[in-house]
Amino acid sequence: MSDFIEVNCDLHVHGLYSGAVSQKMIPKVIGEQALLKGLQLVGTADILNERWIKLIKQQLKPVTEDIFEHPNGTKFILQTEVEDNNRVHHIILFPSLSKVYELREKIKKHCKNLDTDGRPKLWLSAEQIAEMCIESDCLIGFAHAFTPYFSLYSKFDSYKDCYGKYWNKIHFLELGLSADTNMADRISELHKLTFLSNSDAHSPWPNKMGREFNKLKIKEISFNEISKALKREANRKCILNVGLNPLEGKYNRTRCRGCLMFFSPREAEKLNWRCPKCKNYIKKGVDYRIKELSDTKEGIHPKHRPKYIHIIPLSEIIAIALNIKQVWSNRVQDLWKEFVNKFENETNVLLNISINELEKVHKKTAELIKLFREDKFKYIPGGAGVYGIPVPPGKKINMEIYKYRQKGLSAFIK
C-alpha cells in the first residue's frame, strides 16, 4: 500500500501588512477559511516581516521547525514574496524560522521597508537574492511570471537571464491568474520547471484564497517533502493544477489602461501602444506576451506536466444561478454555507460531488457547476487590471462591449 498522501495547497498569499490587503487577512482567519475551501496547506504569507512573525507565533502552533498549524489542523509553510531591483517578484519558501531570521540579516541593509510592508522591496538583483536564498537552504521561484507588472517576463525574455548563474537552481514557476499550463508550455525553456497555480490572495474568503491551488503527492507535510515535490524527486510531484480560466485574469488581453478599450496586438503596435480615444497607454496582455516568447505549439507538454482544471469560485456560480450581482449578498452566502456544510468544503462541491447530489441542495447551481466542469462557459476577457467575467451558455455576449468601460458590463450580456 502506498504511503503517499495528496495535499491541496496554496503556496502564495499575503497578510494584512502588505499593501491593498484585507485587515481580515490574519493567520487565524486564513486557517479557518482554508479548511472551508478544501486546502490542507497554505503559505504563511509575508514571513520576513517582524510584525507578521509575531502574529504567526501568537495565532498558530509550531509542530516542527518548518511547519505551523492552526487549531483546526490547517498547516502553514513559511513563505513570502519579495520584489527585486528590476521590479520582478519572487516567492521564497523557508525550512525554518531560524532561516527566516538568517535571510533577514542578509537583506536588511538592502531594504528600506522590511518591517513596514509585508512584501519588501530589495535593492538586489534576482541573481543576488537567489544566491542568498540558496545559501540559506530556501527555495526561490518567480511569482505570477507573465503579468505586465512586477514579473519575470515583463522584464526579461528568459528566466536564465533573470537568475544568472543560479538559473539551474530554480525549480518552480507561478503561472498567475492570467495564464495556465497550455499557455506557459508554449515556451520550451519552461518545460524543465514545475508549474504552481497559487491565489496570491489579498483576502481570506474562498472566492479569493484558493481560487488557484495545487495538489501535491508527498509523504508528509514538511518543507523537505514539498521541496522534493517541486523538484520532482523520489516520485514526489505536483499531480494537479487548479485555477481560473486565464480569460478571467486581470491582464489576459491587451487593453487601454484608461478607457479600457480592447485592442488586438497588431492594432496596438500600429498605434504605438497609445489609445486613440483617451490617449492613455495600452497595456500588453499576457496572451500576447506569451505569443512573443513562444517557440512551441499549444498542446505540447513535458511528460511530468499534470492536468490543469479550470474552476469558478462557488460564490460566483451561486450569484449567477440566483441572478444576483454581488457575491456577498445574504442569499448567495446562505446558499454557499448550505453547500459547504453538507459537502465539507468548496473544492469538494466544485470538483468531486456528483451533480445529482448537488441538485438536492440547489438545482440551478448544480447545472452551472456541470457546465463549467464541461468547460462550456464563455468569458468576457480581463485586461489592464480588470478581471474577466464568466458567462454561462445561453447568454449572448454583445461584442460591442469591447468599446466600453468595465462599468455596467451586465448590460451587454443578454
What does the model show?
The chain is of the alpha/beta class. The chain has 2 domains: 5-247, Metal-dependent hydrolases (TIM Barrel); 313-373, no CATH class. It contains 15 helices and 17 strands. It has helices at residues 27-37, 50-59, 97-107, 126-135, 152-155, 159-163, 181-184, 223-231, 265-270, 286-293, 314-322, 330-343, 346-352, 355-359, 363-373, and strands at 5-10, 41-43, 61-62, 67-69, 75-77, 79-83, 89-93, 139-142, 172-174, 194-196, 213-218, 237-243, 255-256, 282-283, 307-310, 378-380, 389-391. The strands form 5 sheets. It has an 8-stranded mixed beta sheet with strand order 3-4-5-2-1-11-12-15. Strands 6-7-8 form a 3-stranded antiparallel beta sheet, with helices on one face. A two-stranded parallel ribbon has the order 9-10. The longest helix is centred in the C-terminal third of the chain and has 14 residues, at 330-343. The model is unreliable at 402-414 (pLDDT under 50).
In short:
The chain is of the alpha/beta class. Helix content is 30%, strand content 15%.
Structural class: alpha/beta
Question: What is the CATH class name of the largest domain?
Answer: Alpha Beta
Largest sheet: 8 strands, mixed
Strand content: 15-25%
Tertiary shape: globular
How many H/I helices? Answer: 15
Rounded Rg:
21 Å
CATH fold node name of the largest domain:
TIM Barrel
Instruction: Report the CATH superfamily of the largest domain.
Output: Metal-dependent hydrolases
Ends distance = 53 Å
Poorly predicted segments: 402-414
Gross CATH architecture of the largest domain: Alpha-Beta Barrel
Number of strands: 17
Counting structural domains, the number is: 2
> Average pLDDT across residues?
94
Helix content: 25-40%
Strand order of the largest sheet: 3-4-5-2-1-11-12-15
